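Entry 14. Structure prediction run on the chain below.
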Amino acid sequence: MRSLIAVLTAGVLLASPLAATAAEVATASTGPLGSPASVASSAAPAFGSPESVLHWIHAYRSRPDPGRLPAAYRAASEAGALATPDAAGIYVGFLAGVIAAQPTRADRLIAAILPFPQADSWVIVRAIAYSGHPDWKGLLARNAARLPQHAAMIEAYVNDRMPTLARLATEDDPTVWTRMRGWLRIGDAPTRPARLAVGPDVLDTLWGVYFATGDAGPIGRIVALLPWSQEQDDLERLTVGSMAKFTLVANASRDPALLALLREEVSRQPPATAAVLKDAVAAAETVDVGRVRKEALAAIRALEKNRPDSRKELTFWGHVGEGAMSLGCVAAAAVGQVALGLPCVVGGALTSAALHYFDKTN
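Output returned:
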């Protein structure tokens, strides 16, 4: 369990020279991000504890301060929080969101972070690709020389061989006719760009974008996964859907703006999604996070019991789901840790940490 706690408590102070200073980035902000809060980076306290980076990320959308990005990401790197992609989704999503929110300053933001430890600089590459910036491919190309260890990754994104966050694989399975065409080789199979499989790390990424922007877009994509929490055949989908519901409830119970956004989403959703979302809103309003967690655990265990076939896969995803749901919000009470008081994204970050942990131990 110690490895799980290490993943959750990332972030230590690290001072390093920057290609562009944090003060320059903050001073360049105008409009909504040019508030006094966003230009006060030089006076802000250092990231002196592992929790402080995550606290800052959670509060960022109410007090945008892009000038602290370099220090925050260097602290996360120093603590090892970026070493495992499965457990670093929140950092990818958050940086992607900041880039998206300041498209005209994207080059300066990236220059302020670089140079960066090469082993962890994959986070910068993926964040640029996931940002949806109008010129994200140009951003990657312009910074490729400073990210030599990830040249292949950059080339794959630029040539659309790796999927971005814009291409989530959340749709239902192909139609019967489509499958039959594949089986019988009727006509040429349509070429489709690769789609991004939804897993715990992608949930983390979507939460990271939300914390950077406060935008409804990433929340809408998490909401779209709620029907998966009713899955009765596929344990992977059930686990991801349950994590989506759990993180929405846990975060919305502490965030009035998010709760209001979810209430508005109910009327926009198809019936199957709206039904689950209504229950999630009710649970958030009454801070009934425990019920949601218990129901998710029960569903995961029931599907495991009813599907003795594919035992290895079922056991893996069952452990992931049970681990995430049992640990609850970042406090990780199940391993005897005192509550850290962190915001429940780390409902989100926790799901990836559980995945990483159980992958190591099974």
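The first helix runs from residue 2 to 8.
Filed with the rest of this week's runs.
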